[in-house]
Amino acid sequence: MSLGVARLTSVNLRKDLRLEWRSRDVFNSMLFFALLVVVVFSYVFDASAEEARRMMGGLIWIAFLFSTIMALNQSWARELRNGVLDAYRVSPAPPEALFLGKCLGNFLFVLLLECLMAPLFVIFYNLRALGNVWLLLPIFLLGTWALVVNGTFFAVMSIRTRSRELMLPLLLLPISIPAVLMMVTATSAVLTGEGSPVPQIKFLAGYCVIFTTVSFLLFDTVLNAE
Amino acid sequence: MKNRLFFLLLAVTAGLLAWGTYQALYVAPAEATMGDAQRIFYYHVPAATAASLLFWVNFVASIWYLWKRSPVADAIAVAGAEVGVVFFSVVLISGPIWARYAWGTFWVWDARLTTSLILWLLYVSYLILRKSSELGSTSVLAASLAVFAAMDMPIVYMSNRWFRTNHPQPMIGTPNLNHDMQTVLLWNMLAFCMFAILIAWFRFELERTSQTINQLHIRKAAQGVSMAMLVPIPALLSAKPAMLLLAKKAAFFGMSAMFFAHKKLTMFLLQTSGADDLAHEKLVQHHYMVAGYVAVWTIYIGYLLLLMNKLRKLHQEEREMRAS
User: Above 0.90 for ipTM, yes or no?
Assistant: First the structure.
């Protein structure tokens, strides 16, 4: 059974990646949106390098948060066309495989986005971390997973409502605020070199464990809500 | 039987609220530095307790719903979340009024305040989800969101201990809280919890009634008009007198509260017409107390009026169904 889940997950993941590779519409709009946020913010806060360092934690995560929301809406909207989601619901395939496949797909997209955007932040804001740069790795991995796992769950919930795309930020943001707070303070701690980000990383890890578990337990229910 | 219990509870709650209000305004000693502004405490803390209680009710009912798919559980969950949001709004409004006096600012982004605000936002998003989802799937989606929201609750409670915070630490049972103050606080806690349970009960009955009406609509659509006429609507009939009484009681309490507050304010004005610095200070403390009071009761009464409006609409719908 577990082998079946793993195989189905990889099938789902490969399908998503292939679709995205052929069209590239979601990823391109995400990337362009994040770029726009960076440019607009540089006008809004006319910041020196020293001030920029203090705000950068927040700015980076706001750009990624909003682009993630864009991607998440599209990832399920794609399944609505041609009744793919309904077909999946009537098939005997375990819903967890679908959820895990989607989560991993979105996780990879957002990570790729972050890798491409990082040099831009460094160039545009003249950024240099004063703390331990390697700690950014767990922060970004855990932070992205926290956003993506909740986001994928609430995206499937919001496409089942009347207002569809509109509902996702309304549901996702309140749940994610504690995680966003931790990502931002941890990133700022690394960039400014003031204080240790380790407690926040532990908190983020706990948050990921709790909400991944809850999402997996409830996904079946939400997918089949009638 | 159910009605009699409701009225009994109504009478007891009314008595307790009056007693609690009297205690908070007259019996509790004035706090050493904050004076009368500190009396907001007797509304702020009990409302927070009542709201947390209702959010727990919402969580348990949601789990129950996910397990058994019982419409009763769903109605309890709605009542818990909605009344909980109302009580939590009271917390979030009375808190800043007190903070303006005690800290000199309405709001600080400290851990406790931030997480409380998040909790409030979570349950508001729960209510928005209920409004905007399709009729058939509302309950399941809402129950799932409620589980997520409940996962956030421990973070709210722990935040007081994890992070450095301005917010006063929990004080019941510690030597920091004066004995008289503790007694008054506990009375108010009892009164406001009863009040919350009473309103939630009423909201629950309203929800059950609207569920019945929805069922009637479905049945009517399926079987034609004649069958629907035969189905009795008992919940509505019992809801009407109870609602009127609740509204009357709320109006009475709002007024008596304002009367108490006003009387106290006038007393101070008379005593301190000499207008030295100390008297000025006292007067200002009073403004905060009165403002907190008025804000709190405006919210409660406003919510009760909303419920009344909802009841009127349900009655109208019932009449239209019977007429058609």
Answer: no
